[in-house]
Automatic annotation (TrEMBL):
Protein name: DUF281 domain-containing protein
Species name: Caenorhabditis nigoni
Domain called DUF281: residue spans: 175-229, 283-337
UniProt keyword annotations, A-Z: Signal
Pfam (any one): DUF281
InterPro entries: DUF281
Domain of life, source organism: Eukaryota
Residue ranges crossing the lipid bilayer per the database entry: none
Leader sequence residues: 1-18
Length: 342
């Protein structure tokens, strides 16, 4: 009985000693590459030339904080310096932000967050802090003004209508910019009512007359800074003169050719008829002030000046007394006197 127990214990002991032991090793040590640069030491790593080779610059090594057995990293610059990280094939500009990340112990590469919140892989963390001294903002040159470079050549168009004449005059204003005055007029012997200065802007035709009268129109175009003539908000590509209708003038006697003596009729006894030139019309046409009066002592209850035309006899006196009457007549282009269109 004793022998059996001893044998059993011996077998049990040998079985325990023969069990297989499995060991699980921890992750490799974090040995990702990092280097703090200063002075001119960065030049061999700055392959893209981020830091200018000319001008006054200041550099300083960044602050490097490693934690969790060198697996967590934070690299940043103090003051107002900006952080640059030189990788093996790229330069990262963190500016005034820190470069925070973790070392991957299996690849020995840094996993970093960039300025945009994206995760990037960095082979090495070689950093420097820097800034450019006396940095001036870039000066943007003012756009060149071309307001004296406009030309009417290629814009002005003669439509080939003999009755319509087009002219233009270009001159420089006090501000140094050019302006062009376009004038439309009518040739002698023609009538062109509703004469206009017209302009083509894109596919649309505009009437751009600024001053106009019978048989005349004009407009002023201003040269803008882009070297194109404008009128208001329009930039015409063509300018010309036009009128809906042009017709030859008729050979009329004119409004100064009327003969008052030819109108005198036989006067009653004791009546005298006289006339004199009055103030001309605005168009320069002849006006006559005519009056008649009694030369005796007779008193009339009604006085009148009568005029004959193809439609009959018409009273035309505008001023009347017991012994006199007067009126004003206007000479028209057909060489005839008119009163109230009669």
């Amino acid at each position: 009985m004793l022998a059996f127990k001893l044998l059993f214990l011996l077998c049990l002991f040998n079985f325990a000693e023969s069990c297989l032991k499995i060991r699980y090793p921890g992750p490799p040590k974090c040995e990702c590459s990092s280097l703090l640069l200063n002075g001119g030491a960065y030049e061999e790593y700055d392959g893209t030339g981020v830091i200018p080779s000319v001008g006054s610059i200041i550099t300083a090594p960044p602050v490097l904080v490693l934690e969790d057995e060198d697996c967590a990293v934070s690299m940043y610059c103090e003051s107002d310096l900006e952080l640059l990280v030189f990788d093996t094939d790229k330069t990262y500009e963190f500016l005034n932000y820190p470069a925070d990340g973790m070392c991957d112990p299996y690849t020995q590469k840094w996993k970093m967050g960039d300025n945009e919140g994206s995760l990037i892989t960095v082979n090495r963390l070689y950093g420097i802090c820097w800034k450019l001294l006396n940095q001036q903002p870039p000066v943007t040159p003012a756009p060149e003004k071309k307001c004296n470079a406009c030309s009417m050549d290629g814009i002005i168009r003669d439509m080939g209508v003999s009755a319509i004449l087009i002219n233009y005059e270009e001159k420089e204003n006090s501000d140094g910019c050019k302006a062009a005055t376009v004038t439309c007029s009518v040739a002698d012997g023609w009538d062109c009512p509703n004469l206009n200065v017209s302009a083509l802007v894109g596919p649309t035709v505009y009437k751009i007359s600024q001053q106009f009268s019978e048989n005349f129109a004009s407009s002023v175009l201003t040269c803008s800074d882009d070297g194109q003539y404008t009128i208001g908000d329009l930039k015409p590509t063509s300018v010309w003169c036009d009128a809906p209708i042009c017709s030859p003038k008729t050979n009329e006697p004119g409004c100064n050719s009327c003969d008052m003596a030819a109108l005198e009729d036989t006067l009653p006894f004791g009546v005298e008829f006289q006339y004199m030139e009055d103030t001309p019309t605005a168009e320069g046409c002849l006006r006559v002030y005519a009056y008649c009066h009694r030369t005796d002592a007779l008193i009339c209850h009604d006085t009148e000046i009568n005029a004959h035309n193809p439609d009959g006899m018409w009273p035309i006196a505008t001023e009347k007394t017991e012994a006199a009457a007067a009126t004003t007549l206007t000479c028209a282009a057909d060489g005839k006197f008119y009163y109230d269109n009669k």
